Amino acid sequence: MSEFSLIQQYFFQKKLKNSVNQLGIGDDCALMQVPIGNELAITTDTMVEGTHFFAGADPYQLGYKLLAVNLSDLAAMGAKPVSVTLALTLPEINNTWLKEFSDGFRGLANKFSVDLIGGDTTSGPLTLTVQAFGLLPNNQALKRSFAKIGDLIFVTGSLGDAGLGLKIEQGYSSSFPEQALRRFHQPEPRIDEGLSIRRYANACIDISDGVASDLRHILDQSRVGAKLNWDQLPLSQQVSEYIKVTDDWALPLTAGEDYELCFTVSPTKLNQIDIDCTQIGVIEEQQGLRIQRFGVTQELKVKGFEHFC
Ligand code: ADP
Ligand code: MG
Question: Which of 19, 54, 189, 257 is spaced 20 to 30 A from 159 at the CA atom?
Fold first, then answer.
């Protein structure tokens, strides 16, 4: 199979869904026309076999997750996704693999009306790269650097489920593994939430490396500190159960890949919040990241954090 017919069979889209996309797959470049008054948010993420996923990973889930992690970055800026490009490095042409991979990719792309407008196909060790493009009205992006002292800190969804999914993949046995495994393999980018909170949030980040580590990026860039409250952390029943059994209470704070949004809101704007989310802490003047647990406040060190508890 030639590169051309591979693209034609698995990735070509007859009709582009967004008028922003003037020209898709087929020429040397794709063409986009950014509407006046808008900025283009651009992000890229790569997944390498052996580093980001296990050899032999399910291709449908890979296609889904590859797109999800990129769309999650757009969500964290408050951008509306409109198009993506896809660079594939494949060790071989495996039609079953390509069919499932493209189904997973397209499944999520259709859900958010994202057009695949181009890419590249090469041979080599399995490496998957997406570049994603989103629209934002001028000067409305949710940046990491805008958290203010006194802001309340929120997260969408629950924390630690993807981390538990990874533990399950590695042999931990849970009585209800399905939800955690799904969160690990097929994270849901919080696109609609990002678009909503853009109107009232000060700073935002998506949780790819664990809330402690990701929140720290907001703190560093905004030159502030924060205190979290253990009792407020939104935990699924499975994660609560895991902590009860293992005492590994660092998991919801340090495990990555939840792809929830962590954002800060001024106390004066709390009544504007119109999405499901949970307050987990507060931005403070004192630098660093602390957590209050069972009446004791302790510093959260991100590096070597596993060893603190
Ligand atoms: P060129 O040699 O000019 O870079 P290519 O032969 O690499 O062109 O690609 C031909 C067309 O197919 C281009 O429009 C390119 O964007 C698109 N394309 C190539 N690989 C992919 C892919 N994996 N997914 C989507 N589009 C692709
Ligand atoms: Mg090319």
Answer: 54
